């Protein structure tokens, strides 16, 4: 006689080929998880902060030629404090690293500023003291006669520059500024297709000058030994190489021998509003005194 099966009874039995059913996801989710540990905030690195402040001040002073010594005192202090801050346990290192980098960069900047100031002093001291200037004459740029006026250091200044056409003569060179062309932007830009226009608020001017070698060097000298600079109304120096352009009729850099002369232009990018208020600073040779010449 067959035993009757109750409805649903077979579904309650576990099949020998299947493992027991695992714990439901709901039951697993009801378990309480332990709280996550909170990370303790690191205390302020006071030494690193002091090192950073000292490094910033040292960097600023290192950029000032007149206060350079202060920067050289502060920057080593900042360097040492930065190293100390990096070895403190459980303290943030960010400010110490920044101070360390800033103190090193500041020292490099200070060295550059120092040598720049020394170079400027040497440049001003290179003047031989025997440069002479005579008033303009019709054949000033071509004559072989020497200048006979008092040393240039006792005559023209920025406030009272020598006029265009004055003969500036040192032991080795005779230099004459023949002309100054203001608002020469179109001529300079047209001189070469790669010449860039001046910056906004600026213009090109052209300085035409003659350089005659009157020295005794058997190998001659190049007119590059003669320097012409433009000094703005507010006292800034502008060099012709500050803006890389090819001038119309540039002055030659080939060597000249005694009696040889070269004439040509140099272009300067100057402020348009005060272009006529600047002056030229001319040095007749590497060891010549600096002489100021008007631009108009």
Automatic annotation (TrEMBL):
<protein>
    <submittedName>
        <fullName>DUF4352 domain-containing protein</fullName>
    </submittedName>
</protein>
<dbReference type="InterPro" id="IPR029050">
    <property type="entry name" value="Immunoprotect_excell_Ig-like"/>
</dbReference>
<feature type="transmembrane region" description="Helical">
    <location>
        <begin position="99"/>
        <end position="118"/>
    </location>
</feature>
<keyword id="KW-0472">Membrane</keyword>
<feature type="transmembrane region" description="Helical">
    <location>
        <begin position="68"/>
        <end position="87"/>
    </location>
</feature>
<feature type="region of interest" description="Disordered">
    <location>
        <begin position="1"/>
        <end position="37"/>
    </location>
</feature>
<feature type="region of interest" description="Disordered">
    <location>
        <begin position="137"/>
        <end position="164"/>
    </location>
</feature>
<keyword id="KW-0732">Signal</keyword>
<feature type="compositionally biased region" description="Low complexity">
    <location>
        <begin position="138"/>
        <end position="155"/>
    </location>
</feature>
<keyword id="KW-0812">Transmembrane</keyword>
<feature type="transmembrane region" description="Helical">
    <location>
        <begin position="44"/>
        <end position="62"/>
    </location>
</feature>
<keyword id="KW-1133">Transmembrane helix</keyword>
């Amino acid at each position: 006689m067959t035993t009757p099966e109750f409805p649903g009874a077979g579904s309650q039995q576990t099949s020998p080929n299947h493992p027991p059913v695992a714990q439901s996801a709901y039951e697993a989710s009801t378990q309480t998880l332990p709280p996550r540990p909170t990370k303790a905030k690191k205390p302020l690195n006071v030494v690193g902060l002091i090192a950073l402040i000292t490094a910033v001040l040292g960097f600023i002073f290192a950029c000032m030629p007149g206060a350079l010594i202060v920067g050289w005192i502060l920057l080593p202090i900042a360097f040492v404090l930065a190293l100390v801050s990096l070895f403190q346990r459980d303290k943030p290192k960010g400010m110490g690293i920044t101070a360390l980098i800033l103190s090193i960069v500041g020292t490099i900047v200070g060295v550059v500023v120092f040598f720049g100031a020394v170079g400027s002093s040497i440049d001003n001291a290179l003047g031989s003291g025997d440069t002479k200037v005579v008033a303009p004459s019709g054949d000033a740029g071509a004559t072989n006669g020497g200048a006979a006026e008092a040393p240039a250091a006792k005559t023209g200044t920025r406030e009272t520059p020598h006029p265009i056409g004055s003969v500036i003569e040192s032991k080795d060179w005779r230099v004459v500024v023949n002309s100054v062309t203001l608002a020469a932007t179109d001529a300079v830009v047209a001189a070469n297709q790669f010449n860039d226009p001046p910056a906004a608020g600026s213009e090109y001017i052209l300085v035409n000058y003659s350089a005659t070698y009157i020295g005794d060097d058997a190998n001659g000298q190049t007119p590059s030994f003669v320097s012409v600079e433009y000094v703005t109304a507010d006292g800034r120096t502008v060099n012709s190489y500050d803006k890389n352009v090819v001038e119309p009729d540039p002055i030659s850099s080939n060597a000249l021998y005694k009696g040889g002369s070269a004439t040509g232009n140099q272009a300067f990018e100057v402020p348009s509003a005060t272009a006529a208020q600047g002056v030229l600073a001319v040095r007749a040779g590497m060891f010549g005194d600096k002489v100021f010449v008007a631009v108009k």
